[in-house]
Design brief:
alpha/beta, Ribosomal Protein S5, domain 2, six-stranded mixed sheet, 8 helices, 12 strands
Length: 263
């Protein structure tokens, strides 16, 4: 015969699984990464003493201003993230808590993830070169472009690479710079046909851009809302869908003519 539990006894029994879950959350690592604003690099300049963009087979021009690609820094794939770190990241505006699989979507080991990111970067560089030379109407067989950026992986610098190539060869098309002498930052993948794609982490990237002196930020149109969520004061957002659109916006901004889209 089963005995009947008193109310306090029943509550105590029901509380045991809850206590167990809390203890697990507190003392077990969680499947998250914590990200923060990372480094930025001027693709028109040098990185660790080496020009980021080197072009042969076509005349190039001196440029002014900066085109800064942006990054985020996330806890490494083998770092254990505990509940306290997750809560702290949720409460801060200069950090973001992201599912680990969203930050490191491929590979089980650090080495595999690094190899994947390096492959993505190479593909992005090839696409950026094709897109830029295609925009300029130049033959990719006649012109060689080398892109060098140490310690950065993934495809999110594609748009800035393409803009850097265009600025070094043609500028704004009438003797001026795409930047208009400004520090322009941004992010976005690029396809060979010039289509710009979303990347993630844009709210942190705008903070990195502002920290490093940018006054304008090029953002994939689909990520306008994310970019506006923690937008630093004094940083202007320009949404971008295509490489052609990005160039047109920068030329309009430089010359003060035409409309410049905004988020």
């Amino acid at each position: 015969m089963l005995s009947r539990l008193t109310r306090p006894q029943a509550l105590a029994v029901c509380a045991l699984p809850v206590v167990g879950l809390i203890a697990t959350a507190v003392f077990a690592p969680l499947p998250f990464s914590v990200a923060q604003p990372g480094m930025t690099a001027n693709v028109l300049g040098e990185d660790q003493g080496t020009p980021v963009i080197t072009i042969s087979g076509a005349p190039t021009r001196e440029t002014s201003g900066q085109l800064r690609m942006t990054t985020i820094e996330a806890t490494s794939p083998d770092t254990r993230v505990w509940l306290g770190k997750v809560i702290d990241g949720w409460l801060r505006t200069d950090q973001a808590v992201m599912p680990r699989d969203a930050v490191y979507p491929s590979g089980d080991t650090v080495k595999e993830i690094e190899q994947h990111n390096e492959a993505q970067m190479r593909q992005s560089q090839n696409a950026a070169t094709e897109a830029a030379l295609g925009y300029l109407g130049l033959d990719t067989k006649d012109i060689k472009v080398d892109l060098e950026l140490a310690d950065v992986g993934g495809p999110s610098a594609g748009l800035l690479f393409s803009l850097g190539i265009i600025d070094k060869i043609e500028g704004d098309g009438s003797g001026g710079d795409l930047t208009g002498g400004r520090t322009i930052a941004g992010t976005g993948t690029i396809k060979a046909d010039g289509t710009v794609g979303a990347v993630g982490g844009v709210a942190l990237k705008t903070q990195a851009a502002h920290r490093d002196g940018a006054t304008v930020f090029l953002v994939p149109s689909a990520e306008c809302a994310d970019a506006k969520s923690e937008l630093p004061k004094g940083l202007r957002l320009i949404p971008v869908k295509t490489l052609k659109g990005a160039v047109q916006s920068l030329v309009s901004l430089e010359k003060g003519t035409g409309s410049v889209p905004t988020c």
